[in-house]
Specification:
Blueprint lengths: L2 H14 L7 H8 E9 L5 E3 L1 H15 E15 L6 E13 L12 E13 L2 E9 L1 H7 L31 H20 L6 H6 L2 E8 L6 E3 L1 H15 E2 L8 E5 L2 E5 L4 E5 L8 E7 L1 E8 L2 E9 L1 H6 L5 H7 L10
Parallel strand pairs: 1-6, 7-15
Antiparallel strand pairs: 1-2, 3-4, 4-5, 5-6, 7-8, 9-12, 10-11, 11-14, 12-13, 14-15
Helix pairs in contact: 1-2, 2-3
Length: 335
């Protein structure tokens, strides 16, 4: 029941604690397959093998965020219900001292939190496939540059589960994971219709508790209760987007009361103006990670990672380049 696969990922994380920019490639090689398929957010995209992942992502990150510490809130594993293999999921923050610029984001020399969520597929004792998302706009805001001034909800450092039971190091009852996956699937079925002929709040109440918490990404923000979620995210999002494709996931799994998924992409959609961008007819991809906590027969909390920088890049807005051109000042979207 996934304990062997969990142990592989735990061993990697333990080895990474003392890694340096010079040693991180060897650490990754010790725990990943030679043809390791790594996916990341913009501007990293897909990489193959430990050397490529280390040079593109981890070595620069460890140079910038020194004394890096993993502060994990959720950890679980499960059999992929939409594809192959057993995947292990970790979510929380990478915390360090922001001592040198990263991706053009100015250093603060202060403590910084980088939200992350990682899916690792484990096979024959090695990590063979990964999806890692870190919330780069969240780090930009901490450095004083806000790429998304038109957020519809509140931005903050996202906490872990209110129940403080998200680290599933031990084996969980199979029935609990099945119940969580069923709740997630029911929610996806309702969401996929973009309307069941019910008022939005009634539709959401079919699969969510009234006091649900939606921990959205920087740029959109977090919102609490069905009523506020409908007003501060779900309603505005549905009003802005159209020609939405069907939903597809590379991996969808659950264990115990926790589950989640990611897509590459999850779906495509056009918009009528969203987050300060003018409307256009680009069918832009959404690459999203969702993590859920189930309580009873409904969903109670949801942590969301959206590659908003990639979404904007597809529409001709290179946020990182614009930030570099306006170093030290707030970013203003084009109109």
């Amino acid at each position: 029941m996934f304990q062997t696969e969990k142990a592989v990922v735990r061993a990697l994380y333990a080895a990474m604690k003392d890694a340096t920019p010079d040693s991180i490639a060897k650490v990754l090689k010790d725990h990943a397959s030679p043809d390791w398929h790594w996916r990341g957010m913009h501007p990293f995209y897909e990489r193959r093998g430990a050397d490529a992942v280390a040079s593109a992502f981890y070595a620069p990150l460890l140079t910038s965020l020194t004394r890096l510490q993993r502060r994990e809130d959720i950890f679980f594993a499960g059999q992929n219900s939409t594809g192959e293999g057993v995947w292990v999921v970790s979510m929380g923050h990478l915390m360090g001292l922001f001592d040198a610029p990263w991706l053009g984001i100015k250093a603060t020399r202060k403590i910084a939190f980088l939200r992350y969520c990682e899916f690792n597929r484990v096979e024959d004792g090695k990590i063979v496939e990964t999806m890692l998302h870190v919330d780069i706009p969240h780090l930009m805001i901490q450095s004083g540059v806000n790429p998304f001034p038109n957020a519809t909800a509140a931005h903050m450092v996202q906490p872990g589960p209110v129940t403080h039971d998200g680290l599933l190091m031990d084996q969980q009852p199979e029935a609990e994971g099945s119940a969580t996956l069923a709740a997630i699937n029911a929610m996806i079925s309702d969401l996929g219709t973009w309307g069941l002929g019910l008022p939005l709040e009634e539709e959401l109440a079919r699969t969510w508790y009234d006091d649900m918490i939606w921990w959205g990404p920087a740029g959109i923000g977090a919102t609490y209760t069905i009523e506020r979620y409908a007003k501060q995210h779900s309603g505005p999002f549905r009003a802005a987007f159209y020609d939405r494709s069907g939903t597809g996931h590379v991996a969808r799994l659950a264990e115990g009361h926790y589950g989640g998924f990611f897509g590459w992409p999850n779906f495509t959609a056009k918009h009528r103006g969203f987050m300060g961008l003018p409307d256009n007819d680009v069918a832009a991809e959404f690459r999203i990670i969702d993590i859920y906590r189930r309580d009873g027969d409904k969903l109670a909390e949801n942590w969301i990672f959206i590659d908003l920088l990639y979404w904007m890049q597809q529409q001709g807005d290179d946020v990182l380049a614009r930030m570099a051109a306006n170093a030290g000042t707030d970013y203003t979207p084009p109109h």
